[in-house]
Amino acid sequence: MRVGFIGWRGMVGSVLRQRMTAEKDFDGLACAFFSTSNAGGSAPDIGHGPGLLLDANDLDALADQEVLITCQGGDYTEAIFPALRQQGWRGVWIDAASTLRMEDDAVLVLDPVNGDAIRQALVDGKNTFIGANCTVSLMLMGLSGLIRTGQVEWISSMTYQAASGAGARGMRELVQQMRQIGVESAHLLNDPATAALTLDAQVSQTLRGDSLSTDQWGAALAGSALPWIDRLVDDGQTREEWKAMVEANKILGLSTPLPVDGLCVRIGAMRCHAQALTIKLRSHIAMDEVTTLINGAHEWTRVVPNAQADSVTHLTPAAVAGSLNVPVGRLRKMKLGPNFITAFTVGDQLLWGAAEPLRRMLGILREHKG
Ligand code: HSE
User: Fold this and answer.
1) Closest Cα to atom 2, ligand 1: which residue?
2) At what angle do helices 111-123 and 134-147 cross, to 10 degrees?
3) Taking the alpha carbons of 317, 319, 323, 329 in that order, is the dihedral positive or negative?
């Protein structure tokens, strides 16, 4: 199979290559690497010998591939995808960007949740497969076992989203901000007698002062939280918040829409998104049963006991970063009523939230093609 990669150098593309190397996915593929800026340069080493980068804007070179996988971003998709299809390319387009997600012909890929629909789409001749929004994918990875019962009436998701969701520069600026806070408060921290309020005053001064780099975030993210992600769409909702319901429902393929809504908040985590969920059930389900349903969904989700040590050890961005596990914890009935439960879930935004569904889509395609 001839597979072309675009946007392989960025963060999601790099994680995709790491995962493909770890799983030996490159074996048996004829890979071409494309570049928007460095055609003719050296292709990355995937153990297939040296190669040269092709021009990512050369439609003929792209059309030579049976499969194109892009992590290059929405602007690239917008510019290239319609032109490629228009000139008759019928190959499989696998994309991380949001541009095509809500197109009728596009299938959102998250195979532990909608693997059957993906396989059917291939049988039906569909050829546009798009990774979903990271918070949506991570929420469904955690909750699909419960949602499949049909007993979930609605979900409210309050997110704690990592810097990586906004790109590499955002991660870098977060750490720069952390350093700045540390540097400017070091003299106080070094003295054990410093009062906490004195330390706080210094940190606040750094967070609000001119020394802090805020080019990416527009404000302090370290030592703070930013309750706004992406642009305003409608009714005071941000685009990140809008995606939750439309994309979740598209993946789940439900006949009656499942309402999903909440606030999306950026926090100073590096690459794991967390979400606090309020789930309204249609009927009472015992908590043991909820646990069994969540655990039974697939191999990557496990319930963390609702206990302090387990929660702070296993249910945090720090614990989950770099792992394919999507733990779900803090599960309990709420005082709001017998059919309300709460949960907290964490997942790596670069893995199941971005690269892994694309990697696995390629695997499903290979199986389909035999
Ligand atoms: N929009 C997400 C975020 C990134 O900003 O965290 C992945 O979909």
Assistant:
1) 165
2) 100
3) negative
Q: What is the mean pLDDT of each run of 10 residues along the chain (370 residues)?
A: 97 98 97 97 93 98 98 98 98 98 98 98 98 98 97 98 97 98 98 98 97 98 98 96 98 95 98 98 97 98 98 98 98 97 98 98 97
CB contact burial 116-131 (16+ within 10 A = b; e otherwise): ebbeebbeeeebbbbb
Nearest-CA residue for ligand 1 atom 6 is 165
Measured CA to CA, the distance from residue 272 to residue 321 in angstroms comes to 6
Question: Which of 135, 346, 351, 356 has most ligand 1 atoms within 8 Å of CB, for mutation?
Answer: 135
Q: What dihedral angle (degrees, nearest 10) is formed by the CA atoms of 275, 278, 283, 287?
A: 60
Read off the tokens for 5.
Answer: 């990669």
Question: Ligand 1 mean position to 348 CA, how many Å?
Answer: 12
> 264 CA to middle of ligand 1, Å?
10
What is the whole-number distance in angstroms between the Cα of residue 318 and the centre of ligand 1? 18
Which residues have a catalytic role annotated?
134, 273
* Beta carbons within 10 angstroms of residue 253's beta carbon: 12
- Is this structure's pTM higher than 0.90? yes
- Phi and psi dihedrals of 4, rounded to 5? -105, 140
